[in-house]
Design brief:
alpha+beta; Glycoprotein, Type 4 Pilin; Dna Ligase, domain 1; 2 domains; 4-stranded antiparallel beta sheet; disordered N terminus
C-alpha cells in the first residue's frame, strides 16, 4: 500500500485518550509475553476496542533496557487498525529487530516500552537538497526518503543524536544504502510527526 499523502501544511493525528494509550501499552507488553511464552502471536478482536484504536494508523514500538535501545520496529505505511499495528510491532521489536538478538523471557520484565503513533505523512515538494532541508523542523519532524528500491525513515527522536539538518539527512541516506552526497530528481520525501507515550 502506498503512503497516505497530505498537503505539506496538514498534520493529522488520531486523538488518543489516556485510557487508549494505556490500553496500547498493555497490549504491547502482552504481545511480547505471549510470543516469548507461547511462541505465537497475540490474537485480538479489533472491534472490542475504542473507535480511536480501530482507526487506520501506523506506529513504531521501541524497547529499552536500562536506558539502552533493545529493539525498535514500525512502519510508515498505513495498512491496518492502530491496535493491530501496535500488537504486531511490539512482538516484532522484541524478536525481529536485526540489530539485536531476540529478547529472552528473563529480560521481558526489565523492558521499558514506548509507542510512537505517526501522523499522516506529508509528501514534500522540493527542487534540491537545500529546499528539502529548509522544510524540516528539527526535534519535531520524522522523515522518510525513497528513490527506487532504496527507502528509509528516521523518527523525530533521532534529532537528539544529530547536530543539524544536514547530518540528519546524510545519516538517513546511509540508512537507505545511499551515499551521503547522493542526489536525484527522483528522490521523494515525506515528513511526519509522532505522538509518543511510554510506561
Amino acid at each position: 500500500m502506498s503512503f497516505t499523502e497530505a498537503s505539506a501544511t496538514e498534520t493529522t493525528f488520531i486523538t488518543l485518550s489516556v485510557d487508549d494509550q494505556q490500553e496500547l501499552l498493555s497490549l504491547a507488553r502482552e504481545s511480547i509475553r505471549v510470543r516469548l511464552l507461547l511462541e505465537r502471536d497475540l490474537l485480538i478482536d479489533e472491534t472490542a476496542f475504542s473507535p480511536a484504536l480501530q482507526q487506520q494508523a501506523t506506529s513504531f514500538v521501541t524497547l529499552r533496557k536500562k536506558g539502552q535501545l533493545r529493539g525498535c520496529i514500525g512502519s510508515t505505511q498505513i495498512t491496518e487498525p492502530l491496535v493491530t499495528n501496535v500488537v504486531h510491532h511490539a512482538m516484532a521489536s522484541a524478536i525481529d529487530d536485526p540489530r539485536f538478538p531476540p529478547v529472552t523471557l528473563d529480560e521481558e520484565s526489565a523492558l521499558h516500552i514506548e509507542i510512537s503513533v505517526l501522523s499522516t505523512p506529508n509528501l514534500l515538494t522540493f527542487a534540491d537538497e537545500k529546499e528539502l532541508l529548509a522544510q524540516l523542523s528539527s526535534k519535531r519532524d520524522g522523515l522518510t526518503i525513497e528513490v527506487g528500491a532504496n527507502k528509509a525513515t528516521f523518527l523525530p527522536d533521532v534529532w537528539n543524536s544529530m547536530k543539524d539538518e544536514t547530518e540528519f539527512l546524510s545519516q538517513l541516506k546511509l540508512k537507505a544504502d545511499l551515499a551521503t552526497d547522493f542526489w536525484s530528481d527522483n528522490l521523494k520525501a515525506w515528513n511526519y510527526q509522532t505522538n509518543c507515550f511510554s510506561e
